[in-house]
Backbone:
């Protein structure tokens, strides 16, 4: 099973969401649903970046790293740009 780390961007405001999952399509659908707690305030969300990892542990480590950069949006945007 592959695990993905993903970055979503709100279409309405300059907000990013970073997460990890094994089913990215289902997860994005959830973030754009009424069931989502934090993300429903900033819907709709679009996928702007994802990375694949072979283990959940690797994905979680990368997710934590990207979240540590979240306040430093210029570094986060550089990572996104370099990967595309």
Residues:
């Amino acid at each position: 099973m592959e695990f993905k780390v993903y970055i979503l961007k709100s279409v309405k405001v300059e907000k990013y969401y970073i997460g990890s999952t094994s089913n990215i399509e289902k997860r994005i659908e959830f973030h754009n649903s009424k069931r989502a707690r934090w993300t429903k305030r900033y819907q709709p969300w679009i996928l702007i970046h994802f990375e694949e990892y072979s283990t959940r542990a690797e994905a979680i480590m990368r997710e934590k790293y990207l979240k540590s950069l979240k306040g430093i949006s210029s570094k986060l945007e550089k990572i996104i740009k370099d990967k595309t």
Notes: The CA atoms of residues 66 and 72 lie 10 Å apart.
